[in-house]
């Protein structure tokens, strides 16, 4: 029976590989330790993946499938490539209804053209033999544009109580793999308080930041989307995958800045996973700056650079930075009359890579759980 030799490490003090693969119930004990090879459960015969992430393809799948990038997008709610039914046991294990693309050999983003994905459902690409991604896969959310597949999951509304005041404190950043940043105060009322990190025991979209303020509420940053690739033999990623969140919008005049969204989720499971030279990102967006007599500036969307996901700049009440490369999400700056508090940066998403023959990505932010 095939064993997965590379195992997840504990995410901070939150959870370990056993919980992620659905092998044990969640424990309130924050220190679970690393899983061992003996703890891992293979997928049932004829199925792909592992544990709670097992995918059982239909008896007959197309021999060759091409998911082509184009000027448009792949919508997980309407694309005809999505299977008409969920695989046996998938929803019963608590997994969200997803867009499944099945095939023997699947090529994604052919000729290097990015595949941009939107929709309310996560994208699951499952090949009985191999998956090759020649171009980038974009399941991130973007300011003023698309929302990644499965982003803004339903249990992402757990923010702490924020002060009301004049409605000009900043919103908290969203929390998922790591907690978001605190919203900045306005000199009278506290800013928003981020919720706890969420253990992704199933596929889980990134979480939006918090919007706050009775005077006006600028849009918060959306969370990143979800993509799961699993194959019977190999996965090869030539370029990269982006599942990052969105920067929060700057506050309207005399209103607090909105919190940034978290990164989403990337899962890769196959006997051989080759990410040589590829970049995997699930970063949080920067928080929006608080407004004064003029609107505050928006938090930055993640772009993978070393200066990624900065909060909206301001002399006072600036937005907090989004989580990136092990950096925690930053708190929004304090405002004080006549300025308003900045929004907190979004927390990190979650990346997992499992295989018996693993070639690590060039960069992974946050660090992948092997």
N/C terminus separation: 20 Å
Q: Fraction of residues in helices?
A: under 10%
Order of helices and strands: HEEEEEEEEEEEEEEE
Number of H/I helices: 1
Instruction: Characterize the biggest β-sheet.
Output: 9 strands, parallel
Number of strands: 15
Specify Rg, calculated over alpha carbons. Answer: 20 Å
What general outline do the C-alpha atoms trace? elongated
- DSSP strand (E) fraction? 15-25%
Structural class: mainly beta
Mean pLDDT: 84
> Which regions contain 5 or more consecutive residues with pLDDT less than 50?
1-40
Provide an overview of this structure:
The chain is mainly beta. 1% of the residues lie in helices and 18% in strands. The protein is built from one helix and 15 strands; from the N terminus they run αβββββββββββββββ. The chain has one helix spanning 17-20, and strands at 64-67, 74-75, 99-108, 115-118, 123-133, 137-138, 226-231, 234-237, 240-242, 265-269, 272-274, 279-281, 350-354, 357-359, 363-365. The radius of gyration is 20 Å and the shape is elongated. Residues 1-40 have low confidence and may be disordered.
């Amino acid at each position: 029976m095939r064993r997965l030799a590379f195992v997840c490490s504990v995410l901070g003090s939150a959870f370990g590989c056993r919980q992620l693969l659905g092998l044990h119930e969640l424990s309130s004990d924050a220190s679970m330790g690393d899983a061992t090879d003996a703890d891992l459960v293979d997928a049932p015969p004829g199925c792909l993946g592992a544990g709670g992430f097992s995918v059982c393809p239909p008896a007959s799948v197309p021999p060759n499938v091409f998911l082509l990038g184009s000027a448009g997008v792949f919508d997980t709610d309407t694309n005809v490539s999505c299977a008409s039914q969920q695989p046996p046991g998938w929803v019963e294990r608590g997994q969200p209804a997803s867009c499944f693309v099945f095939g023997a050999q699947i090529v994604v983003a052919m000729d290097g053209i990015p595949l941009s994905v939107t929709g309310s459902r996560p994208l699951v690409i499952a090949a009985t033999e191999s998956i090759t991604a020649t171009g980038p896969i974009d399941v991130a959310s973007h300011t003023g544009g698309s929302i990644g597949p499965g982003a803004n999951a339903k249990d992402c509304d757990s923010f702490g109580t924020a002060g009301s005041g004049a409605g000009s404190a900043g919103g908290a950043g969203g929390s998922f793999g790591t907690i978001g940043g605190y919203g900045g105060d306005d000199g009278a009322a506290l800013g928003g308080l981020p919720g706890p990190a969420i253990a992704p025991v199933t596929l889980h979209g990134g979480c939006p930041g918090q919007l706050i303020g009775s005077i006006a509420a600028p849009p918060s940053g959306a969370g990143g989307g979800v993509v799961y690739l699993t194959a019977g033999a190999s996965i090869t990623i030539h370029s990269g995958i982006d599942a990052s969140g969105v920067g929060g919008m700057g506050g309207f005049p005399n209103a607090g800045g909105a919190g940034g969204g978290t990164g989403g989720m990337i899962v890769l499971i196959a006997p051989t996973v080759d990410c040589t030279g590829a970049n995997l990102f699930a970063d949080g967006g920067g928080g929006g700056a608080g407004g004064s007599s003029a609107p505050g500036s928006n938090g930055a969307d993640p772009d993978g650079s070393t200066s990624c996901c900065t909060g909206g700049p301001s002399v006072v009440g600036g937005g907090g930075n989004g989580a990136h490369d092990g950096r925690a999400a930053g708190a929004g700056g304090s405002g004080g009359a006549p300025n308003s508090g900045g929004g907190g940066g979004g927390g990190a998403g979650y990346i997992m890579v499992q295989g018996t023959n693993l070639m690590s990505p060039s960069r992974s932010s946050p660090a992948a759980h092997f």
